[in-house]
């Protein structure tokens, strides 16, 4: 039996300026199915998401939008 490796994707999010922003984006992204961890780098404006399976850019974009911010491009 092979162990499935987690998927790590990094996204650029515009508009985050403070800890409230970090909490809002983290909360929305963490609620997506399969997400294990969310790390926000406020200085670089990035969100790194670790999940069991790849996330669709559409679902990530919707979550970031729900938090009140904008996803730039897709995940890398």
Please give a structural write-up.
The chain is an alpha+beta fold and 76 residues long. Helices cover 30% and strands 32% of the residues. The chain contains 2 helices and 4 strands. The protein has helices spanning 19-30, 57-67, and strands spanning 7-14, 35-41, 46-51, 70-72. It has a 4-stranded antiparallel sheet with strand order 2-3-1-4. Helix 1 crosses helix 2 (57-67). It starts with 6 loop residues before the first strand and ends with a strand.
Order of helices and strands: EHEEHE
Helix content: 25-40%
Alpha-carbon Rg, integer:
12 Å
Shape descriptor reads globular
The counted number of beta strands is: 4
Quick overview of this protein structure:
This protein is an alpha+beta fold. The protein has helices spanning 19-30, 57-67; strands at 7-14, 35-41, 46-51, 70-72. The protein has 2 helices and 4 strands.
Write the layout of secondary structure elements.
Layout: E1 7-14, H1 19-30, E2 35-41, E3 46-51, H2 57-67, E4 70-72
Antiparallel strand pairs: 1-3, 1-4, 2-3
Helix pairs in contact: 1-2
What attributes does this structure have?
76 residues, alpha+beta, 30% helix, four-stranded antiparallel β-sheet
């Amino acid at each position: 039996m092979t162990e499935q490796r987690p998927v790590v994707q990094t996204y650029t999010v515009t508009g985050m300026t403070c800890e409230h922003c970090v909490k809002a984006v983290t909360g929305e992204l963490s609620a997506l199915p399969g997400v294990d961890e969310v790390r926000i780098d406020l200085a670089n404006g990035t969100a790194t998401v670790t999940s069991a399976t790849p996330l669709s850019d559409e679902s990530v974009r919707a979550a970031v939008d729900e938090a009140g911010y904008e996803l730039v491009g897709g995940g890398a």
